[in-house]
Amino acid sequence: MATDHDLAGNALLAALPEAELRRLLPSADTCSLSQGQVIYEPGDRVKHLYFPTTAIVALLNLLRNGASAEIAVVGSEGLIGVALFMGGGSTTSRVLVQRAGQTVRVQAQAALEEFGRAGVFMHLLLRYTQALITQMAQTAVCNRHHSTDQQICRWLLLTLDRSNGNELAATQDMIASMLGVRRESVTDAALKLQRAGVIRYSRGHLFVLDRPGLEARSCECYRAVRQEYERLLPEMSRR
């Protein structure tokens, strides 16, 4: 069973009143997620809601030819499994662990029962879902209209917001796969950022040295997503 300390590691759970947490606690446990682990495939029934604490998880849409692209990234600010309480019940995306770490896992039935009480839990999850939809929509626009360099900056910033510190474990192949672009484009962009003193890249580890510089090189999409999260979830922006 998850502990109070575990629940406090996720912003949504930490924002719940004590009474609602007490009702969820018996159906919650903690588990470790490994990098590259697939939590859900498209069409899978949602059996648990996942509330990451230290893990970072990517939502990817797939094509029949095997190509994929990330549509959203989720960390300790959010949850995996919104289809459960939106009425669909099954996922439409592949849910892939981008960074290994811990998550709180809540059984679907218990989550639905608490959602049905129409309390803080329901309102938080609905506001989070709107913020997540904004991230998905902005990602789609960004991938269509902005340069690969700008997309990489946006991706780095969104991932950095969900990390502790300024270091990311990310290979160029992984970034290319997440963005649905050629590896050579990622290499070129990384070299530009490194020469400008914005990042340092070494053996699959990326260090952000100049965050303001990274934000200046990003497009408007990162700011649009962040502002919507702060507007809809002020409880989390204060963390």
Whole-number total of structural domains = 2
C-alpha Rg (nearest Å): 18 Å
- Strands of the widest sheet, in order across it, are 2-6-4-5
Q: Mind describing the biggest β-sheet? A: 4 strands, antiparallel
**How much strand?**
15-25%
What is the CATH class name of the largest domain?
Mainly Beta
Quote the CATH topology of the largest domain. Jelly Rolls
Total DSSP E strands: 10
**Helical stretch tally:** 12
Amount of helix: 40-55%
- The CATH superfamily of the largest domain bears the name Jelly Rolls
The chain-level mean pLDDT equals: 93
Task: Measure the end-to-end span.
Answer: 25 Å
Described by the principal axes of the CA atoms, the overall outline is: globular
Nutshell version of this structure?
By secondary structure, the chain is of the alpha+beta class.
